[in-house]
């Protein structure tokens, strides 16, 4: 039986980051991944001629409380010189569209547009924002709500239907009528509780930030992150593709003698009376002082259920919903394909029922690749079964849907030079109303039961790359691994 300070279940970006920071502290670590590759949903398709497609995340945002951790990780891995970015002033950052009544409509993107009526939102946004200042304060006992209800309460149904709805479909492939505001946009929900008005909360935070000196000695700040703020980056990526992050993490783990088990699935976790855990892989058992579970909640639930731990833990894990997404990368030769249109892409509100896709990303508008135009068409999500059937895996169906979409919306009639179809099963967890409270109760139950177990990954604290890296690092650095 192999004995380790920690066993990490899952070789996606959360599991790799957890193992990396544990190994940096000199811990003896084993990482278990059920598939034949590491990296999880972070995946770059690299063609022989140097053209890349992103199957999972396409970019990273250098904003928010979790963004600094990713930038620090890139520096730790020596990837500073591979970073490529888009500034907020560039069309790929400014021009964002939605599909409305079969037309692509630009969303307001600058100060002057706040004062003008828009097709998407009707009356000028400034009127909506001013009116929000005087909205009735919500019930203080409200513990959570859907993003749709939240947006409607503060800004009206037009912004909820044509702004928040497509945005959430783009982020989570889910329904904003179900997604939790306290999980996905916690600062806004807390701002509502504190100030009643979201606009008041944002103004207060802005004043607070300008009047408060950041104590940079109390926190390690990334040079990449500082540069991104100073130069006003909107998004960034890596020149060889985002999978470079997980590849470099894997290389570092091998250098540090982390034992990596690929094509290996945990059959059970046995929590012993002596405070240790034994992970059974079938062909080998691994004893650990602590288990970091970075596998999806739906995979961990059955393992926990076998372990005779309090029922509430497994019940929560098995209750976290996930959605399937089909992704089609289309590659065209020649910059004339989009007829000069430069934009981030477009998203499709759920009420535009005639359309079968979630949105289309104009990838090479953000990160150019030679003379090519690469578009990524995303479809399915919460609506996968309704649109394509539960067991649909036929790449031709998704390819033809993508071709039809770009022809109808963008006028592209030519065939792509190349294309790549991916069907990503259960790829995005849905943090629905009540998720945060249920997660807190689950973690308290784990703590009360003295289980050497930490929950890590997109199933729990956040679904972005920034969230996954930040919370994985925090878990690795804060957990006591003494026997």
Automatic annotation (TrEMBL):
Keywords: FAD, Flavoprotein, Heme biosynthesis, Oxidoreductase, Porphyrin biosynthesis. Binds 1 FAD per subunit. Residues 13-429 form the Amine oxidase domain. Pfam families: Amino_oxidase. Its cofactor is FAD. It is found in: Mitochondrion inner membrane. Its EC number is 1.3.3.4. The keyword Ubl conjugation does not apply. GO terms for cellular component: mitochondrial inner membrane. One of its GO terms (biological process) is protoporphyrinogen IX biosynthetic process. It catalyses: protoporphyrinogen IX + 3 O2 = protoporphyrin IX + 3 H2O2. The keyword Transcription does not apply. It is an enzyme of class 1 (oxidoreductase). Belongs to the protoporphyrinogen/coproporphyrinogen oxidase family. Protoporphyrinogen oxidase subfamily. Catalyzes the 6-electron oxidation of protoporphyrinogen-IX to form protoporphyrin-IX. This is Protoporphyrinogen oxidase. The lineage of its organism: Eukaryota, Metazoa, Ecdysozoa, Arthropoda, Crustacea.
């Amino acid at each position: 039986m192999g004995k380790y300070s920690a066993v990490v279940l899952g070789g996606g970006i959360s599991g790799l980051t957890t193992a990396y920071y544990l190994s940096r502290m000199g811990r003896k670590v084993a990482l278990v991944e059920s598939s034949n590759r590491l990296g999880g949903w972070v995946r770059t398709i690299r063609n022989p001629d140097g053209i890349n497609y992103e199957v999972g995340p396409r970019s990273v945002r250098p904003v928010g409380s979790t963004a600094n951790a990713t930038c620090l990780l890139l520096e730790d891995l020596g990837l500073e010189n591979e970073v490529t970015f888009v500034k907020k002033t560039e069309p790929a950052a400014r021009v964002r569209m939605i599909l409305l009544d079969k037309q692509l409509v630009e969303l307001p993107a600058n100060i002057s547009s706040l004062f003008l009526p828009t097709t998407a939102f009707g009356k000028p946004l400034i009127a909506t924002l001013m009116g929000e200042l005087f909205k009735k304060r919500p019930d203080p006992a409200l513990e959570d709500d859907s993003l749709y209800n939240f947006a409607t309460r503060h800004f009206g149904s037009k912004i909820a239907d044509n702004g928040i709805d497509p945005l959430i479909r783009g982020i989570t492939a889910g329904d904003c009528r179900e997604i939790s505001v306290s999980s996905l946009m916690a600062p806004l929900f807390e701002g509502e509780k504190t100030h009643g008005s979201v606009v008041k909360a944002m103004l207060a935070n802005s004043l607070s930030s300008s009047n408060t000196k950041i104590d940079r000695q109390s926190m390690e700040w990334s040079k990449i992150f500082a540069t991104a703020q100073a130069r006003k980056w909107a998004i960034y990526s890596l020149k060889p593709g985002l999978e470079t992050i997980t590849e470099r993490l894997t290389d570092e783990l091998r250098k540090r003698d982390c034992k990596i088990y690929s094509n290996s699935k945990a059959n059970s976790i046995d929590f012993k009376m002596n405070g240790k855990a034994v992970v059974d892989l079938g062909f080998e058992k691994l004893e650990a002082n602590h288990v970091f579970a970075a596998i999806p909640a739906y995979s961990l639930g059955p393992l926990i259920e076998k372990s005779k731990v309090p029922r509430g833990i497994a019940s929560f894990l098995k209750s976290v919903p996930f959605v399937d997404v089909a992704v089609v990368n289309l590659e065209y030769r020649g910059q004339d394909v989009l007829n000069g249109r430069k934009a981030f892409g477009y998203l499709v509100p759920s009420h535009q029922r005639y359309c079968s896709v979630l949105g289309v990303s104009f990838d090479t508008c953000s990160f150019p690749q030679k003379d090519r135009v690469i578009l990524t068409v995303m479809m399915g999500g919460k609506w996968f079964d309704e649109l394509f059937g539960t067991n649909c895996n036929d790449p031709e169906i998704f390819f033809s849907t993508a071709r039809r979409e770009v022809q109808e919306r963008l006028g592209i009639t030519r065939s792509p030079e190349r294309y790549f179809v991916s069907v990503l099963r259960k790829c995005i967890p849905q943090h629905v109303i009540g998720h945060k409270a249920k997660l807190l109760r689950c973690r308290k139950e784990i703590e009360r039961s003295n289980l050497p177990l930490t929950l890590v990954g997109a199933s729990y604290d956040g679904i972005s790359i920034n969230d996954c890296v930040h919370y994985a690092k925090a878990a690795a650095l804060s957990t006591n691994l003494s026997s």
